[in-house]
């Protein structure tokens, strides 16, 4: 349910309660009258003229009965009456939506305490049709109106007035979002000297055309004038040729009297200074327009809250809409509803018909009033980027055509590099790991067991041959000692021979003992390598997987970066959803905080905000509705993409968020209560 639909329902119920009193009593009377009319029609056949009149009265009563049913349902009153057998839903009437506090895409939300009936806002054609129905009924029953017909006409008229009032709010809200976009554009242009220079160059063709037309007009006017001195003509032409006329808004006060005149700029101001003053002048005018728009929306949105205490009147609502239409036409009519004497139904119908035709163009007239301060046209904003793209594309095409062979070679080399990188550092180690797991093959091997066994056997033979020359010995025992690493038999001889090294190196056994020790060192190194080889084989799978980590990590980082860039590009406006909602929520919190600080000490518990504050708050919640449409609304927890990654959201996050927005828009809540709503939103939604 949008703010406009809820506003229509609240105003409609407030009007009916203030003008008709008990709607249920009218429904009971209408049911009895319908039953009696049905009984009388079975007994007698009226004439054709009376039949047509009865048909018009019947349509009037039928439409009023439908509206009264919606009023009672929307007010939470249980309808205990039996519906009339002739009753059927009106094609132009309101619609009953038994959705539970949902928006357009809704879904049934859990933990609901009751069913809320939504009165949909009728279209302007339906409103005009209802007004024609009331006017024709009044014309046919001049001087002979019954109490039921008068109440039916009043009920339909109240629905039309509430619809015109709500449609006016909708038209003003339609102008709020483009106005905010224009202000954001000028804020970006006032960011620095580079932005100012780019904006000046973008708008230079339009400035030159306007400058030329003004210069030509000055020349023609002064040439056609009589009695003008030649020096005066030259002075006027010289003044027309000055560069300050590139900024006509800073030289003359164009527009209505609502637009303030720009302070006079010094003669020594340069181009960038004049550009900055022009941008800030437009920012100020748009800020004033936004303030006026907020006051209009605030005064309109507070009608339902006023109706609960001081009884809203249809005359006041019509006067409010009339004042807004007049204010947009810049007439002398002051804005704001004033006390009006009670009008007859026929005069209210006539006034409502006039306003129904005028409110269709409220948004257009408001946009026309600020058109000269809005951002430039799409052509003016895009001709420079388009020109740069065309020139860059042409230069790139010429370069590619002249270096086609080189580019083909670079492409082939790049493909080969990436292919070798992936195949050698990712696929090959993973294949080796698979073969190790599946077939038991080993990639890492320092030395074989046969080589170590052969070295050990040679050492044993050398020791056995060396010791058999020095007395009796047991070869089996010697081999056992050598296998365990004991060379005591050789070392005893070596210790004796080393006492006379030079003599025994030539005539003794010193060299043979040294060579046996060299073979022993070789065997020890082989055993060490065998132990290392066993360790490598036991951890071969870990080494294989570890060798793929750098390459896989680099590919993962590159793929993730590419995926995020593509997702950001394909996301469109939804990529800024979280950022836009956070910025708007900050503005709402700041607005409520400032309003509470400006409130007098004895007025802390006032029932409603000021009209301007309420209007700005409704405009900000309108922006929230626009951005929150991208929130997930599934029955399970969803995900919301942000600039920092993905955040998990609550089930039915969009419905819950819209429910909080409706609390912020409600004119019945105080500023403190709305601050509590903002705090609840910060606690509930992680992306805030």
Automatic annotation (TrEMBL):
InterPro entries per record: NCA2-like
Top-rank taxon: Eukaryota
Membrane topology: Multi-pass membrane protein
Signal sequence region: none
Renumbered residue ranges of the record's region Disordered: 31-56, 78-107
A cellular component term, taken from the record's GO annotations: mitochondrial outer membrane
Residues in coiled coil: 272-299
Keywords, ordered alphabetically: Coiled coil, Membrane, Mitochondrion, Transmembrane, Transmembrane helix
Location(s), subcellular: Mitochondrion membrane
Composition skew (Polar residues), residue ranges: 31-46, 78-89
Compositionally biased intervals (Basic and acidic residues): 47-56
Protein name, per record: Nuclear control of ATPase protein 2
